Predict the 3D structure of the following.
Amino acid sequence: MTATDRSLQLVRLAAEAAADKLADDILAYDVSDQLVITDAFVLCSASNDRQVRAIVDEIEDRLRIEADAKPVRREGEREGRWVLLDYIDIVVHVQHEEDRTFYALERLWKDCPSIAMPDSVARVAAQRAREAVTE
């Protein structure tokens, strides 16, 4: 079983929204063979709590406007360290970079196929990497 077209559309929109708010290390995994509750996980991180919230807001807005999707569950918003958005088809994890390092969700799902990021997301990541080198 693989992620549905709808799930892949939501992954793409969530990744693009996160990139627009300068999220770091945006990844997605097709977890449909491992879990029955969702098709894909999207992971990204931010350097501070305020940016975590901005990324979450942008993802919610983009998915609502462009895909008519609303999360059925939203957890962790108060603390702003790790916010989970559950869209049933996909689950988005926006983590503070310290929490991302500590919990290392990538290790848990490393056996699942990764989902390729849209070119726009890869371009933003490459540009940010170049800027970090020159600073």
Remarks:
- The chain has a mean pLDDT of 92.
- The CA atoms of residues 28 and 115 lie 5 Å apart.
- The first strand starts at residue 24 and ends at 30.
